[in-house]
């Protein structure tokens, strides 16, 4: 067997032992380039992949190699950027059409025509057990838009990678099909465009613009809850695109069935294709994310520091990258790596908010303190507006922050019926779309909750 056949046999064996998403992420750009006696050399396209194969998959690789060729006793790994992948999976390369002028927003190149962030791709998305289904579905949709998974609905908590996947999907379509018309937008911007066009009586032109797209990607779709006219127009746009096999994708912080105050016919459209969730990243994935970021930014961090960051920041990738940036800034200012004690000190406030356990009683106290009430007062059976709103905010936060059941929330709030709790949560969610003062109040309460 020649080197190519040996490595193909190894890849076939490895693919049976790990997830498809992990297999594509770590092995697609690998190649067996040399055999010298009992030692073989595996080439990787970057140092991050090289390190990952050495540390995580070495035993599996060596075992598969020895099963293929008993002469092989050792494996060496090198980086070679000219490696040709043996897995047939075209890497994403972002291209910009001449008429599309990139803008620089917050350090990111944004395509003015499509709204796509050009730095987000499948290539730089770190795959783990928490997101591999969503990743695979988005990647398949990028390869076969409108036919693989349509619509695609990705949901999960804040800062877990939903937006990255939407942009990666759009960029993949743009690369493979340069003539296709693609639009990424947020639900807030979509809603604003609908309201503005209704006011200026240009709704027909706006709808035509959306209906002529080949791919429509809407982020934070939960924010159209309660906006009846926007939902009505989205329903018609959806049907027009879907009937012509155009790719539609949504991202949300919750599954379709949990989005309050949306039309049932629209909810059924959301659920009609592929629904995939993104969960919290495990320790291994968090370490991989940090190492990938370190490599992109040419920042040298030892294993111990990376592991410390990954252990202290557990729930949010944005916080994870924020923690990395804090350590990176320290290194640039001080000219040296921080000690273990200094790392823990630098991350103390982040780790507290990330790992703190909150009880319903503590949350309720934060609410009554903010509104200058007492717990006894807020539990009264009163319909006074000065009590109703704080009570509804408390119910909403117990549901959103603590993930409590509606009956349990009702029990904690003086024995209220679960239907009352559902109404309160839906009302607050609906008002948050338009009421900036309410949003500020809730953010202030959240800050107070995690202040200590």
TrEMBL record:
<dbReference type="GO" id="GO:0005524">
    <property type="term" value="F:ATP binding"/>
</dbReference>
<comment type="subunit">
    <text>Oligomerizes as a right-handed, spiral filament on DNA at oriC.</text>
</comment>
<dbReference type="InterPro" id="IPR038454">
    <property type="entry name" value="DnaA_N_sf"/>
</dbReference>
<dbReference type="Pfam" id="PF11638">
    <property type="entry name" value="DnaA_N"/>
</dbReference>
<dbReference type="Pfam" id="PF08299">
    <property type="entry name" value="Bac_DnaA_C"/>
</dbReference>
<keyword id="KW-0238">DNA-binding</keyword>
<feature type="region of interest" description="Domain I, interacts with DnaA modulators">
    <location>
        <begin position="1"/>
        <end position="90"/>
    </location>
</feature>
<dbReference type="Pfam" id="PF00308">
    <property type="entry name" value="Bac_DnaA"/>
</dbReference>
<dbReference type="GO" id="GO:0005886">
    <property type="term" value="C:plasma membrane"/>
</dbReference>
<dbReference type="InterPro" id="IPR020591">
    <property type="entry name" value="Chromosome_initiator_DnaA-like"/>
</dbReference>
<feature type="binding site">
    <location>
        <position position="161"/>
    </location>
    <ligand>
        <name>ATP</name>
    </ligand>
</feature>
<dbReference type="InterPro" id="IPR027417">
    <property type="entry name" value="P-loop_NTPase"/>
</dbReference>
<protein>
    <recommendedName>
        <fullName>Chromosomal replication initiator protein DnaA</fullName>
    </recommendedName>
</protein>
<feature type="binding site">
    <location>
        <position position="159"/>
    </location>
    <ligand>
        <name>ATP</name>
    </ligand>
</feature>
<comment type="similarity">
    <text>Belongs to the DnaA family.</text>
</comment>
<dbReference type="InterPro" id="IPR010921">
    <property type="entry name" value="Trp_repressor/repl_initiator"/>
</dbReference>
<dbReference type="GO" id="GO:0008289">
    <property type="term" value="F:lipid binding"/>
</dbReference>
<keyword id="KW-0963">Cytoplasm</keyword>
<dbReference type="GO" id="GO:0006270">
    <property type="term" value="P:DNA replication initiation"/>
</dbReference>
<dbReference type="InterPro" id="IPR024633">
    <property type="entry name" value="DnaA_N_dom"/>
</dbReference>
<feature type="binding site">
    <location>
        <position position="163"/>
    </location>
    <ligand>
        <name>ATP</name>
    </ligand>
</feature>
<dbReference type="InterPro" id="IPR018312">
    <property type="entry name" value="Chromosome_initiator_DnaA_CS"/>
</dbReference>
<feature type="binding site">
    <location>
        <position position="162"/>
    </location>
    <ligand>
        <name>ATP</name>
    </ligand>
</feature>
<feature type="domain" description="Chromosomal replication initiator DnaA C-terminal">
    <location>
        <begin position="359"/>
        <end position="428"/>
    </location>
</feature>
<feature type="domain" description="AAA+ ATPase">
    <location>
        <begin position="148"/>
        <end position="280"/>
    </location>
</feature>
<keyword id="KW-0235">DNA replication</keyword>
<dbReference type="GO" id="GO:0005737">
    <property type="term" value="C:cytoplasm"/>
</dbReference>
<keyword id="KW-0547">Nucleotide-binding</keyword>
<dbReference type="InterPro" id="IPR013159">
    <property type="entry name" value="DnaA_C"/>
</dbReference>
<dbReference type="GO" id="GO:0003688">
    <property type="term" value="F:DNA replication origin binding"/>
</dbReference>
<dbReference type="InterPro" id="IPR001957">
    <property type="entry name" value="Chromosome_initiator_DnaA"/>
</dbReference>
<dbReference type="InterPro" id="IPR013317">
    <property type="entry name" value="DnaA_dom"/>
</dbReference>
<keyword id="KW-0067">ATP-binding</keyword>
<comment type="function">
    <text>Plays an essential role in the initiation and regulation of chromosomal replication. ATP-DnaA binds to the origin of replication (oriC) to initiate formation of the DNA replication initiation complex once per cell cycle. Binds the DnaA box (a 9 base pair repeat at the origin) and separates the double-stranded (ds)DNA. Forms a right-handed helical filament on oriC DNA; dsDNA binds to the exterior of the filament while single-stranded (ss)DNA is stabiized in the filament's interior.</text>
</comment>
<dbReference type="GO" id="GO:0006275">
    <property type="term" value="P:regulation of DNA replication"/>
</dbReference>
<dbReference type="InterPro" id="IPR003593">
    <property type="entry name" value="AAA+_ATPase"/>
</dbReference>
<feature type="region of interest" description="Domain IV, binds dsDNA">
    <location>
        <begin position="332"/>
        <end position="452"/>
    </location>
</feature>
<keyword id="KW-0446">Lipid-binding</keyword>
<feature type="region of interest" description="Domain III, AAA+ region">
    <location>
        <begin position="115"/>
        <end position="331"/>
    </location>
</feature>
């Amino acid at each position: 067997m020649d080197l190519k056949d040996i490595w193909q046999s190894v890849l076939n064996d490895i693919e049976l032992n790990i997830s498809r998403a992990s297999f594509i992420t770590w092995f697609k750009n690998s190649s067996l380039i040399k055999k010298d006696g009992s030692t073989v050399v595996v080439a990787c396209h970057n140092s991050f992949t090289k390190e990952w194969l050495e540390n995580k998959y070495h035993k599996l690789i060596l075992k598969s190699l020895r099963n293929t060729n008993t002469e092989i006793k050792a494996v060496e790994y090198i980086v070679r950027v000219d490696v040709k992948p043996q897995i047939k999976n075209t890497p994403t390369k972002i291209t910009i059409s001449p008429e599309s002028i990139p803008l620089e927003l917050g350090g990111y190149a944004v395509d003015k025509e499509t709204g796509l962030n050009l730095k987000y791709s499948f290539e730089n998305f770190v795959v783990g057990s928490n997101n591999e289904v969503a990743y695979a579905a988005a990647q398949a949709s990028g390869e076969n838009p409108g036919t693989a998974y349509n619509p695609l609905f990705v949901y999960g908590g804040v800062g877990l990678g939903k937006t990255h996947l939407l942009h990666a999907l759009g960029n993949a379509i743009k690369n493979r099909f340069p003539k296709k018309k693609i639009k990424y937008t947020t639900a807030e911007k979509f809603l604003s465009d609908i309201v503005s066009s209704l006011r200026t009586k240009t709704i027909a032109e706006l709808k035509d613009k959306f209906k002529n797209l080949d791919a429509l990607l809407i982020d934070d779709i939960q924010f159209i809850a309660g906006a009846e006219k926007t939902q009505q127009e989205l329903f018609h746009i959806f049907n027009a695109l879907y009937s012509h096999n155009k790719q539609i994708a949504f991202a949300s912080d919750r599954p379709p069935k949990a989005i309050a105050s949306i039309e049932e016919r629209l909810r059924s459209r959301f659920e009609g294709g592929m629904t995939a969730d993104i969960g919290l990243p495990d320790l291994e994935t968090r370490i991989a994310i940090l190492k990938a970021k370190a490599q992109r930014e040419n920042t040298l961090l030892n294993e111990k520091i990376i592991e410390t960051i990954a252990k202290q920041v557990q729930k949010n990738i944005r916080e994870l990258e924020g923690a990395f940036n804090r350590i990176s800034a320290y290194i640039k200012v001080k000219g040296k790596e921080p000690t273990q004690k200094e790392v823990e000190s630098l991350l103390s406030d982040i780790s507290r908010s990330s790992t703190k356990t909150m009880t319903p009683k503590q949350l309720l106290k934060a609410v009554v303190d903010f509104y200058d009430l007492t717990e006894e007062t807020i539990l009264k059976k009163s319909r006074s507006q000065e009590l109703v709103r704080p009570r509804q905010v408390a119910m909403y936060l117990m549901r959103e922050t603590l993930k409590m059941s509606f009956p349990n929330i009702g029990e904690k709030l003086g024995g209220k019926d679960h239907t009352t709790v559902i109404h309160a949560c839906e009302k607050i969610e609906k008002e948050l779309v338009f009421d900036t003062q309410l949003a500020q109040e809730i953010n202030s309460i959240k800050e107070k909750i995690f202040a200590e």
